[in-house]
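Please, structure for the following, as tokens.
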Amino acid sequence: MSKKAMIQAALLSVVSIAATTIPTLSHADSLGKCFGIAKAGQNGCAGITGNHTCKGTSSESYNPGDFKVVSQDECKKMGGLSKEEAMAIIHDATKIKAFEEMMAKRNS
């Protein structure tokens, strides 16, 4: 392979990698924690309630203290909460139960 062909191949590789990486990085910027959408055992990491400390260990579905990482658009479509909205609910058992029931009906 000539030197020119090797340089062209290397440049093509760099451009290909950049083309596939840039959209991924842009997409990652729009991802965030969406509270209240995780089903039991599908939560991402520890919840804000302190009920558990590890990914996939939630025993309740749609607990507003648990989150999954999704896009902001997907969070809205699923009826999820921001961290601030979740914090306003998690200290009131009546609000937690009402939210969980609403989410269960919505997603059944």
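The two ends are 60 Å apart (CA to CA). The mean pLDDT is 82.
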